[in-house]
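[Automated response] Your request has been received and processed.

Submitted sequence:
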Amino acid sequence: MRLVRDVRTLEYDRSLAPDDAMRRSRDRFGKYDGRFDNED
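Generated structure:
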């Protein structure tokens, strides 16, 4: 449920441009799946 909440928060944040929101969602899914970690 935490992932769903995080993605919803990103997608409905009007302060983010749509492409930025999508990149952040992709990154959140990737981190959740363990594919990558954008901590660099």
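Summary generated for your ticket: The chain is about 65% helix and 0% strand. The chain has a mean pLDDT of 82.
If you did not submit this request, please reply to this message.
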